[in-house]
């Protein structure tokens, strides 16, 4: 076999594989366009040929295993997550592993994962070949292994979380937690909460054309809240729901779970959430979602917090006129919204006290969305890539649903809350989005609401008390959970401390985690006897924050 075609005697194939992977990694982690990976690979290949990597003078072969294989695998996992989601959230990874990933709908991601796996295997084989055939690689690759370990953001995050276990004060957030009150309140309105998958308010920027126009039109009729940032552990669907309904970030159960290898049996059982507060007021509660309620513990969360009706893909698909009209995640939004109308009709006809309904769309799901047939008929052909098409679809269907319910008189004495569950992950306009100050959608409509735009420093934690406040339900000092009503003069945690401080404190927190998962842990840690005498560094660090001066 000639040297030009024999992998044993020529380094061109290992150099090409490593160069291609290096180029791809750099384009994922930077803003460089995708085509620059070819330039990077070519430069790498040229340097390798010039320095005779793999075929040095006086080559000495040794059958060794490189130190860098494990660090390369860890970096490969990080690159896959960063490429898929834009930002790597370890909390999301850990929570989904415990809460369940059945019926995740990510068929496309499975194919991508297979391609990544093949690429990583080729990378590991190439590094091993060069290390065994080139003594210079054997001398330097162990230092490369140390660099890869130190530079991997995922391992850095794991180290920070491990350090939190021994921190001196792991109760900074827990001291600021205010349990929601369940006092009786008469004449509270019905409630419709519409989570729009990944439809952040940033899409209202002129860069994105008219994709957000229908939501802007809705906002002109009601309350619009601007400046709702994304705190750590609130950046995926279940976390966004819990933050906005419980006023707390979703800290995974982790080691607090009694059986590490069994799925969770409850989701944040240690705190009262929107469902618990409304159930105490006599509300009938329903949740409808296009995706499976088995994914990420959605069913466990809603049933565990007193929702009477909880339906997702499996339950609703049996009622479809066309069983084939579904996508890889579940029901299209036009179908889901038809079921929403039917459910509100049922709740209204029963006339047995107030009702609340929560639904979750999927049209805006990254990377390209799932526009429904209704939108295809209205907007024309979908190219399968442009997320703005799906954003426009989600916005128009949301407006259509609300106007349809109003025409039927089904929204009398009803507060309608339209919000994004979290900021979007990597999509076709990712580079434009990440140059802007991003914030979540939050719009409220209802009888007696005067159109108003409120801009404050806030997070999804503040949505929970704001909903209760607008509904006229009692609050303890205008607070609930870790949030403050955005219609009050109470400062939010972001306004008082800043987002970076909150995220830093979250990484050190252990007491709030124990509170969230109380009942799943062996025993909640008791505070020390001298806890009441603890020294507070500054007045702003106290649980009762200073009020905003207006």
Automatic annotation (TrEMBL):
Residues 518-550 are annotated as: Disordered. This is Phosphatidylglycerol--membrane-oligosaccharide glycerophosphotransferase. The chain crosses the membrane at residues 12-29, 35-52, 64-81, 110-131, 143-159. It comes from Vreelandella andesensis. CDD domains: LTA_synthase. Keywords: Cell membrane, Membrane, Transferase, Transmembrane, Transmembrane helix. Its main location: membrane. One of its GO terms (cellular component) is plasma membrane. Residues 190-472 form the Sulfatase N-terminal domain.
